Amino acid sequence: MTVIDVTEADFQQQVVDRSRQVPVVVDFWAEWCGPCRQLGPVLEKAAAAREGEVVLAKVDTDANPQLAAAFRIQGIPAVKAFKDGRVVAEFVGAQPPANVERFFDALVPSEADRLVAAGDEASLRRALELQPGRADAAVPLARMLLARGERDEALALVENVPGDFQADGLRARMRLEAAGEPDLSAAFAALDAGELERAADLLIEALPSASATAGDGGPSARDEIRAVVVAILDELGVEHPFARDARRRLASALY
Q: Exposed e or buried b for every residue in 122-159, given b needs 16+ CB within 10 A?
């Protein structure tokens, strides 16, 4: 059911616990509230359009004063969205339908989100048709293409994704492989095998002998190696123990 009535007795189960599986939008309202009667049908229409992807829970503040107090409801209608057991978005007062639609859209995965989550080649290509330059689609698709030797298409994909560490790193790797100097085949073999720490070590070790200038006016070999290492550290995460030490060694090798 898209719309449910919730009370103090079942709020924990129906809203907080349930929001760990599906977003729950809570409408705090009262029978005497004119704006509540105006907003209610708009919320219900938005929830019905997303059947199975979001739940609308209605809380009568007159009948459930403890809930109203717990969530510091000072004016109604008050709308709060729950995900993973906590409030992630909210607004107060009647809103135009377009605003309500945007509120619900932010809670529910888009078609492109679902395609990226699927992760197969066809889905990733379709996601990029819907949202060109989307990094979380372009990078995994480029990796698939690179693995089967379709280097030109892979490079074109990541060149259209500016400002993303993973795209920058993959682009730099392909340029380094094409140049063939310095020889980083062992590092890239480790990277392909998922041995991220070994790959980063080998790349950092190669920095002192790499050229610091570019003959064609583009990035130097040192710049490209740095981009690959940064992508590896980004994948490991800022709190990873290896990443902290590797950042220090990377800076030392560069400067």
A: ebbebbbeebeebbbbbbbbbeebbeeeeeeebbebbe
Q: What is the pLDDT of residue 172?
A: 96
Residue of 36, 39, 206, 232 marked active site: 36
Whether pTM > 0.85 for this model: the answer is no
Q: Which residues of the chain have pLDDT under 50?
A: none
CA atoms of 82 and 24, how far apart (whole Å)? 5
| Residue tagged active-site, from 6, 24, 26, 33 | 33
Active site residue 74: no
Q: Is 6 a catalytic residue?
A: no
